[in-house]
Fold this protein.
Amino acid sequence: MELAFQNEEKDKRAAELVVANKELAFQSGEKEKRAAELVIANIELTFQNKEKEKRAAELLVANIELAFQNEEKENRAAELIIANKELAFQNEEKEKRAAELVIANKELAFQNEEKENRAAELIVANKELAFQNDEKEKRAAELVIANKELAFQNEEKEKRAAELIVANIELTFQNEEKEKRAAELVIANTELTFQNKEKEKRAAELVIANKELAFQNEEKEKRAAELIVANIELTFQNEEKEKRAAELVIANKELAFQNEEKEKHAIELIIANKQQEQIVYVVSHDLQEPLRTVSNYMKVFEEDYIGILDDNARKYLNSVNSATKRMSALIKSLLDYSRLGHNKSLALVNFNELVGEVLEDLETMIKTSKAIIEVTELPTLNVYETEIRQVFQNLITNAIKFQKKDTLAKIKISSKYINSKWRFSVSDNGIGIPMVHSERVFDIFQRLPTKERYEGSGIGLANCKKIVQLHQGEIWVESNSGQGTIVSFTIPNLLA
Amino acid sequence: MSKNLKCILLVDDNHDDNFFHEREIKKINLKNIVKTKNSGIEALDYLKSKEENEAPHPDLIFLDINMPGMNGWEFLDEYNKLDKELQSKALIIMLTTSQNPDDETRAKAWPFVSDYITKPLTKEVMEGIISKYFATPVELPASQDL
């Protein structure tokens, strides 16, 4: 059945091919017409046309062939019908084979379609080829011209080639040189690259350093500006100082001159002092002699002539005697005063011991007067011992002596350290000293007017003042709350 | 030194003082001789020429300091040059107006200067000197022919 169907199909195909053949035959006629048209239309394309005519003829032959084949195929189909029968028993075999053929058929069908497509394409290609032909002719003409041109160019190029060969040789040499040079340059480059990197590093460092320097520069400029201001100030100060120095030089000279004057003056004072002491000594000595002569003869009078004198004469004699004695005492005290500090040397003295010794010396006087004497803790100092002893003796004696009637003397001896000096005070509850006389009491032979009469030469406090001054101290009197007197004196720390 | 005081020499230029001092000395009624010389040089000459006169060598010399010509100090210098035996015969006591302790110190530096007394010399002072330096008992003035 299948085969029958295939046969039918083949028949149909054959019929279609016939139709197609007829069609082709028709088309051939069309083409002939067309060819004729082409002959008319394109005389120049005669040659091509002839070719195409030949082709057309060939196609015609092919067509005839195809027609023949068609007939053959019909014959064959008939044979195949017979053969089909023969093949009936082969069918089984062929069925097997058929499956394979189906595939092959489909393949063939596909190939057929492809061939048809190809045929269509060939037509298009033909048209294309025709167009290309034209183009190729144009191109051929152009190529002839181009060929000539190329021939000329060829010659030129050959010449040029010869030149280039020479040039090439030269360039080859140069190339080699350049390669050598290049090799050197490569080395140099490497070196330079290294140096470059180094320089870049250095440059980077320098950039940093530059920035730093720039900053420092700014700072220095600021500082310079400040220094300029400071300089101006210093210059001004310098000038002031120079002026001041000049003034000081003048002042120095003045002081040096004054110093010299003072030294001269000091030496003069020392000489004057010694002269004065000498005068006092000589005067006291020379005054004593006539005074003694007076008193001696007064004694002779008393011894040898007292019997022949009346009471008045004896009274006058007594007055002369006491006057000469007092005068002698004054001269003696004047001598003592002038001699204060002679041959003196400082010694460390315990003031409690010294005052104790003075009180022992005055024991009789103290007992008689029933004076109460209080001594506080006193220091140990470098002093002129004999002279200081005299000071305490004078002050204590005064304190006892210048006492109010019917009152017991209360005397206090004390000390205090003030302003690097020891201050000693002897206070009493005696008759006191009017403050208007507070300076006068220290003058030599000054005695204050008092209601009562008190013994003394009036030199005690003068001596005290001189002694204290020998110790570079001061002495003064104060009223003891209106109830007596405080005599105070200071003694600095003296080096032995 | 314990010996008899037979002769006293006053060396002083002041006649008033010499008069008064001799008067005081004689109050003690000593059986002695008081000689007076008015300067150091006179006193020195007297001491040197002792062999030539009958007066005894002085046992005690009162010496003033301030004198014209040879003063007390110069006398002591010269006295020091005398024979040691001669020196040993007398003790010297300074009798002066000077109350200057320096003078006393200076005088006593001489070994033959025994004492330093300020004027006037009185009977009491003289008695003290005799009892201190001399063995001579005070003789009664009975034998003295005044």
Chain A touches chain B at residues 281, 284-285, 288-289, 292-293, 295-297, 299-300, 332, 335, 339, 342-343 (CB under 8 Å). Chain A has seven helices and seven strands.
